[in-house]
Write a structure and sequence with these properties.
Elements lengths: L39 H8 L24 E2 L2 E2 L8 E2 L3 E2 L44 H8 L19 H24 L1 H26 L4 H36 L1 H10 L1 H10 L1 H10 L1 H37 L1 H10 L6 H40 L4 H11 L6 H16 L1 H30 L4 H15 L1 H28 L1
Antiparallel strand pairs: 1-2, 3-4
Protein name: AI-2E family transporter
Family: Belongs to the autoinducer-2 exporter (AI-2E) (TC 2.A.86) family.
Main location: membrane
Amino acid sequence: MPDQTPHDDRPAPSADQGGDRSEQPPLPSPRPAPPGRASSSGAQAGAESEASNGGTATKTASAGDTKTGDTKTGDTKTGDTETGRTETGGDAEPDSGSESGDEAESAPAAPAPAQAARPGADGADGSAALPDPVTDVAVRRREAGADEKAPFGRPGRPLRQAHPFVFGFTGALGVLTAWLLVQAVINVRQVLVLIVVSMFLAVGLNPAVEALQRGRLPRGAAVGLVFLGVVLVFVGVGFAVVPPVTNEVSKFVDHVPTYISQLQSNRQIQEWDRRYQLLEKVQEAVTNPSFGQGAAGGLVGAGRVVVSGAFSTLTVLILTLYFLGSLPTIKSFFYRLAPRSRRARVALLGDEILARIGGYVAGTVMVALIAGTAAYIFLSIVGVPFALPLAITVAFTALIPLVGATIGAVLVSVVAFFDGLGTGIACVVFFVVYQQVENYLIHPRIMKRAVDVPPAVTIIAALIGGTLLGFVGALLAIPTAAAVALILREVILPRQESL
């Protein structure tokens, strides 16, 4: 029987004409295709078809069905695989002469670009290495993305906050900043003390200024009157203390030869001189050259102390005047640092703290004034010399919490003993009795209205403040304790109760 198998007389299409590409050898791929993308061998294996049931030839994909970089032929989409449909400008139905999945051909996948060779190394196919941006300026600008707006290139991604370098650098910078701040505070501690004392005095004098303002006096005039009163107090103290001290020093210098002759004629001194050669040793010490140098150094040191004290006093007065005049502005500035929702409460608490500080200063001055007045009256009655300077000394030492009154009483009693044994004993009895009256009657009634601090807290605060800053610390300790007690009572304790 003759062979009835139909023969295809058409010439075999070439590869350029979209013929059967399944017969062509696959193109070599320089690297494996990434996951999710069809490889060239897989595309070819899926594109091969065989003639079936009647010798129907498969149709080759038209030129419009192939896209560069996103190739789609038949049922295969190279690089972004889609199966089950053929795109020819839209979703087209399969041709009647072809069957789904029978003999669909697929164009070979475009070869993946070879991985860029590292600078200084040969490529995989033996090609020359890429230019190094270190040596080639053009490559450097191109890789950095330099242009007119960014002549040095685009900045890279910032380092993460958890990067070890960022963490270590931030920690080291914080430690260095803290150390510099501590050193700065240590270097300017004297200036800071003067500022704190000036602010303390300004707050203490503010109630007097506000009292004058309530009398319809402008604040500037009220500040001027109060400050004038403070200056007059200092001037009065100077006139009361300096002339008597100067006179006594002059009298002592004039009577030095008399005192020496009296010592030489004293029997007890003569006995000690025979045993220990006291006068000879004193004469050797006086005639020694180092004695003159030490005396000169002592005089220079005393002069420095006097000049430093005068400068500090002048600085405190000037700062007090400035703070007293601008106290409302300073308060408003610090109140504005608080959040708007809490500013009213912060202002009320701040006004109360300032009022307590002012009350403490006024109360302390009142207690000192009473002590000085009582001492002056008693010393004048007893006939102790220099009654006014001694009374002023008692008043100033009474400003020191806890131990100030005792210091003043000891100094006055020692001077009184030089006047006579009976006078000294009378001074000791007087100050002992007055201390009891002050501790149990005067001081509690005045300070109760001013600061309202328990006695134990007062003692502890004064001890801590005196240890840290001396006289200034002891003076500031009690109003500071009053402020802390107010904050604890009004802020901390209610918050603890609400938890």
